[in-house]
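Loading example: each entry is read as eight labelled lines plus one structure line.
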Amino acid sequence: MNHETLTQILSQVAAGKLSVHSAKDKFEHLAFEDIGFANIDHHRSLRKGFPEVIFGQGKTPDQIIGILETMVNREEIILVTRISLEKAEKVMAKFPMAEYAVDARLLQIKIKEPKISGTGTILIISAGTSDIPVAREAALTAQAMGNRVETLFDVGVAGIHRLFAHQKSLTNASVIVVVAGMEGALPSVVGGMVGAPVIAVPTSIGYGTSFNGVAALLGMLNSCSSNIAVVNIDNGFGAGYMASSINHVSAGK
Amino acid sequence: MNHETLTQILSQVAAGKLSVHSAKDKFEHLAFEDIGFANIDHHRSLRKGFPEVIFGQGKTPDQIIGILETMVNREEIILVTRISLEKAEKVMAKFPMAEYAVDARLLQIKIKEPKISGTGTILIISAGTSDIPVAREAALTAQAMGNRVETLFDVGVAGIHRLFAHQKSLTNASVIVVVAGMEGALPSVVGGMVGAPVIAVPTSIGYGTSFNGVAALLGMLNSCSSNIAVVNIDNGFGAGYMASSINHVSAGK
Amino acid sequence: MNHETLTQILSQVAAGKLSVHSAKDKFEHLAFEDIGFANIDHHRSLRKGFPEVIFGQGKTPDQIIGILETMVNREEIILVTRISLEKAEKVMAKFPMAEYAVDARLLQIKIKEPKISGTGTILIISAGTSDIPVAREAALTAQAMGNRVETLFDVGVAGIHRLFAHQKSLTNASVIVVVAGMEGALPSVVGGMVGAPVIAVPTSIGYGTSFNGVAALLGMLNSCSSNIAVVNIDNGFGAGYMASSINHVSAGK
Amino acid sequence: MNHETLTQILSQVAAGKLSVHSAKDKFEHLAFEDIGFANIDHHRSLRKGFPEVIFGQGKTPDQIIGILETMVNREEIILVTRISLEKAEKVMAKFPMAEYAVDARLLQIKIKEPKISGTGTILIISAGTSDIPVAREAALTAQAMGNRVETLFDVGVAGIHRLFAHQKSLTNASVIVVVAGMEGALPSVVGGMVGAPVIAVPTSIGYGTSFNGVAALLGMLNSCSSNIAVVNIDNGFGAGYMASSINHVSAGK
Amino acid sequence: MNHETLTQILSQVAAGKLSVHSAKDKFEHLAFEDIGFANIDHHRSLRKGFPEVIFGQGKTPDQIIGILETMVNREEIILVTRISLEKAEKVMAKFPMAEYAVDARLLQIKIKEPKISGTGTILIISAGTSDIPVAREAALTAQAMGNRVETLFDVGVAGIHRLFAHQKSLTNASVIVVVAGMEGALPSVVGGMVGAPVIAVPTSIGYGTSFNGVAALLGMLNSCSSNIAVVNIDNGFGAGYMASSINHVSAGK
Amino acid sequence: MNHETLTQILSQVAAGKLSVHSAKDKFEHLAFEDIGFANIDHHRSLRKGFPEVIFGQGKTPDQIIGILETMVNREEIILVTRISLEKAEKVMAKFPMAEYAVDARLLQIKIKEPKISGTGTILIISAGTSDIPVAREAALTAQAMGNRVETLFDVGVAGIHRLFAHQKSLTNASVIVVVAGMEGALPSVVGGMVGAPVIAVPTSIGYGTSFNGVAALLGMLNSCSSNIAVVNIDNGFGAGYMASSINHVSAGK
Amino acid sequence: MNHETLTQILSQVAAGKLSVHSAKDKFEHLAFEDIGFANIDHHRSLRKGFPEVIFGQGKTPDQIIGILETMVNREEIILVTRISLEKAEKVMAKFPMAEYAVDARLLQIKIKEPKISGTGTILIISAGTSDIPVAREAALTAQAMGNRVETLFDVGVAGIHRLFAHQKSLTNASVIVVVAGMEGALPSVVGGMVGAPVIAVPTSIGYGTSFNGVAALLGMLNSCSSNIAVVNIDNGFGAGYMASSINHVSAGK
Amino acid sequence: MNHETLTQILSQVAAGKLSVHSAKDKFEHLAFEDIGFANIDHHRSLRKGFPEVIFGQGKTPDQIIGILETMVNREEIILVTRISLEKAEKVMAKFPMAEYAVDARLLQIKIKEPKISGTGTILIISAGTSDIPVAREAALTAQAMGNRVETLFDVGVAGIHRLFAHQKSLTNASVIVVVAGMEGALPSVVGGMVGAPVIAVPTSIGYGTSFNGVAALLGMLNSCSSNIAVVNIDNGFGAGYMASSINHVSAGK
């Protein structure tokens, strides 16, 4: 549910087309809906501008389908993150309009194609080729939330001239997401080149003392560039979401 | 040095008031200046919209003074972070216009009072009273960078009605900085209430398994709210800087 | 063996129906029984009010069956925790009255249905849908130990109004078990809303810096609410056991 | 503020002795009071049965005094935890009725001596002599909250017969708090001897691989006894609070 | 090779039955033998009283067979530790006299049955049933090295009377090996009951904060009993070896 | 691309055989080439003396093949590291001249056999047989980069006379790579015996508290010999690369 | 109290010189004595062959003196470990016969000079000069417990020929204690040279990644020599105690 | 002692000027000298080309003086590392020719000024001003060992054009030492720009999640540049030593 639906209901009440009692029932469902194994937060679109996103990991396909069924008539776009191909196939059998990105492990149901509502362009950079799946999760999320998105892959610090060649894209972006594993040094370099906010995403790419992304995470948290904030390891979704949130900050506030 | 200075020099050259040779000299100094123990990045104002900030920890008062001397005629505002009262007093003896905030351990030299250039209001929240010094560092930094700043202290999750009473401030903010120690749960609750981006700052307040802020950091990195990104433990400066960076994102990009 | 069995044996001796020698033999077995790979603690029902619970992980099906055989005629209810479906099926082939909860990985043999002996109601809350298996383990354990149990699932802090809608259940509970992964913030919020003791159970739900539940654990140990104590990660059984132990504290003591 | 105060105000309104407007004012202050650096939660006594406790660490003496001033006329007993002797002396200069326990670092202001309201006896055990300060903090807290408290010090597992000599105290207790550093093994042994709930408190006593209490904490979280839950390292206050919370669970709920 | 072989060779030289040149060749092989992927330390029996033991993990079956072939004619007993069933079967196809203990993952080739050479009895205790495989590895190792071995399984601290019932075995042992997972508390209790040296072996049995045996390890390293030393997690072999080494300390030295 | 190719292009321009426009095009490709999922750094041979090495882990076979296709006509030798047998087989189907070392997980395409260009001999030592795969990765890398390489396997500190027997090889080497798991003590001993630089490579061989190589890593970082520097756990490739880099340091610089 | 005292009391009873009632009183005190802040384990000499040792850290001088007063007439030798010079001076003012070793932070009260009762010689080795205080604590403890002790300092692995020069001392020792910080490699080398049991003591000597002794600890736990067991970091006392315990293992058992 | 001394002694023997017996005495002292608390390794100059370096931390001034006294007549240059100003002053009172660098905490006694023997130039770079003391320790060490040394301070990645301005120094160096705290990204960037070996030194500069240099260390170990190896945190001495060792690798080997 979004602001539109809300206005519509209230207008119907004002116009006498909907009884107060029926409206109250609708509103109670708007707040959240208890389906036993989940309390779905239908109020979230209204409060946060985007509906609840389903965290696929640790849920059964039946639970995911059950949640989707309560949402699909209320929302314009729904995301399921961290959903394996196997589970996604079961969900898509039920919801044939769903699209699944296998590298990003992201399933989307788009009732309406999202409109561009963000003010600038979000640039998503990956340090290596192996970091692309996480970068893609960020890109797809930001697009679903109504943002222009550009990507730039495999421009890590071991050959830093590759990055400098794209100086213009960097300077033009309103928000930059930098995805990097191993030593996670790329956000510091990018952050030093621009004034825009940088969202750093450590990935679990690496081995040994990368400790599944901890080395990259620590590198990013200790960056000597100050226009940087960090999300969880491999959290492409969160980075795309945060970037969208930033890209929607506007003078009106 | 900032865009204004740059335009000024170039105009002088164009007008024949400054030889090419002299301009080149000036530009070389603009890039950076080597004073033996430091290579000061004078180009930063131009590139990032704010001059290099001096990290006070681990530098001697003489080193800080030396760096300030190369900057004070080129910049409009200079910050020294993580500087102890003892060192600050030595610096202020040399630069009497400097202001020092003892709780935030922040020293500022303002040649010009910063103008409000950010589009909205930055709200800075602390979970507890003991977290205030870090929150203050964020607030002072954001103000120095040209932002409207509001603060709200001691509204942690153990008495969550205190937070809800300020719903309006939360909804109005363009960016929110949440400073919390111990379990670091407040950013998740705040993030769930608004659509704006939230910068979470873990603090080292706590004992035992707080591990000097690691518990709060992990709580924030694993937040179930998605409009959240995190900075280093006790990094009030970085949070204020990042919030300002976000508050300057505008439609022009 | 429980207090009833004990009284029965002693009465038989008093009535001359059982020789002292035979009684002594029985008592020796009561203390514990050595079956080679295990020393079963038959005295536990008497001492602690509930028989020894079998930790299924790391035991072979034959070992579990062997232990059950020494217990099944002495106890009224027996639990096997952390037992996989595969092992459980082998055990159930031998003990057809056994019931197995696949999500909670808990096998129960109920000779007698447990009577309600706890004084109040234990409320078991999960932050997310993915935390339900651990919550179920807690609920089944508490029920097996003679407690009234209520559950409330998927009411995490990212949409905190879902929790507030159940204020009455919270206020009525004598003990609350809160099961949460990721940042583990829910117990702090719940603990701040009630005076009853809260048992916090971190789960391994999450990824990256959740470190398999460590983030949630630390969040809970550092809670700013004080009516909280914590059990091991994913230890639904221990939480249910502890809650039952608390729910049996009575004025008599 | 507590239930008594609440009833009193409402009765005055009902009797026409207090205007609705004045009552509303009073209630607004009851919820919480903003004094700039703190939002004091006056509602807590009502909600949780005990007023907000002041965490002394990281607060200045002036902040503590400021908070106390808003509370001292509303509450019957106030605790300040983790307050150093030096700070406590400044506070006591202002509040001469305050009592300070130097080993437990606990300051109490008792307007009324607490009445025994808990149903049973709380037994507080320390493994070593060096663990006594933490055990004392637990004992004083539990007493302040209206409980009968017994203590038993220096009965660690290296000479376990010392513990067995006190079997009767163990069996009689409604709740047991066990305080231990080093390997933290005592709660397991105690938990195996009784059916009552055991609150385990790791202490930072030890050296090397005790890692300031982490070894003891892990030992307690992994206890093979199931009637055990754990609080933060050195958190005597929390243990006393939780024990009191348990000791107030009654049949009425 | 052992002292006997050495004496034999030297006697042959003295008796003129072996040329100096041939003896030199033999001795060179005694020091070690390079077979490309391994430098086998044939001198070890002489120096340490027991031949080199093959660490099976990370070696291919062919490598293990290759090493065994150089040893089998020189030594009286050979052990291969941490060898999987699958690898063991390949090795046994080549060396049919080999015996394999599947729970202890230990393969033995006994050319001669070991004689009892240790002075006392080694007692090997496990806290739980799940710890038995590690305890068995210790027992088999100690037997192979010429010691009398007794075992006592599943006598953990949650029912400590089971341990006390075996007081006599404890008092009689010259060395005690205690194998325990979870909180690892048993060695402290055992160490407090006897004067004999105790070798503590943490196991990876447990879950969550057991961190694969780290909790048990730390418990043992911080034991408040002082006649305890610790080996690596799950290192039953090392514990049996060390116990044998202790059991062979004699007045002669 | 290497110095030869560069000179060739420039000469063609000088000789009028290549237009400036075509040369510019070639040079732009020389810097790097964007193939969507990768920005291949063709400039690296020129800058660093060896072409970009492909990190196989986390890349699909198609991505590896795509990258190889852009490199195979420009370079004389190409390495793919950490590539599984399964992926390697797909790559070799496309590039039949590729050679794959299954233990070292290294794939090489040699257009030309590398010439010996390093000044001395690189000695590669493994502490155990299980460390050989990592040692082999180092050896193959160093050979590919134009170095004379000797190896010495299974000479760990538990039988240190095996090492001393090879004193001469140690003394002759210009650089030594020491590969060791478990306690990682061998580099200290080797470092103490020679003046040459030692590159220490911790391996993940071990169990329990080896923490997948962390124990060995820490041992090496804390070595009491000073001619030692360390690379990542299991990083045989990096050690071979670094050793080659050292072996190419010459008086000319 | 020791075996002698026990025999004496029992003989007096047998001889009618002591009433059963008086003997019972004496025995009750023998078990342990409760002096409020401590339960002194007087039974320990009987059970373990050496009286309770006082852990000085975290105890006040008054507590130490109080404990000593209950022991000084019952025992022949008393140790206080980890006692600072400042505390020791207060204790010595009360007990002038006490001796204090400032480097080892060990205070001893010898009523009788200990007789040599151990069967062989304990050799105590330190890797560096900085490790000597811990080695001295081990040596003094072992001497107090009736052992012949030899020491050998500063023979670390960076110059391993220094160790080999003392081969004879190594071969002659019945037990060896090896004290080492930094990488902790020395016990592996020593363990490889002898058949005797080796007690390894990590020290906190080092910096950076020594992590206050964790690097040395891990090195020792992962030793490729098997006749090694480990005690806590800087635990010289425990190593000396354990070594004595081993040196008293005799054929009688 | 060095090669010269050795040759001299042997020549005297050959010339009959020194008896075999006296020469043997001298050689025995050459190997090492036992002065009770230290076994000084006089053989090291011969074996490794540089005398034993004294690790000042944890040694008393008297111990340092004692060691120096045995060395000062045998060596040409002696270093004492990690020696505080306070200790250094006591040592200099005894050895007035000693020089002390207070920032590097390094004391040197130069009997002869070291000759340049290394083949190229060692370039030592620091990322920040606060990293200079560690960089200085590296520079002084490398100079003492006979190398040409250049330094370049405060060129961190947040303003990477400062580094590029010194491209020529980077390209000319035979070995580069890069000293960096915080995220430790600089060695990756430098390593990507040159073919020479890079020694990376993490420093403890930073706060919060820098974990006293662990973040920088992990960044360096996971570098995506391969010509990098790492030394311990703050180990400027080791880096200088290793760089010198590399700079002395020559074609002769």
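The two ends of chain D are 23 Å apart (CA to CA).
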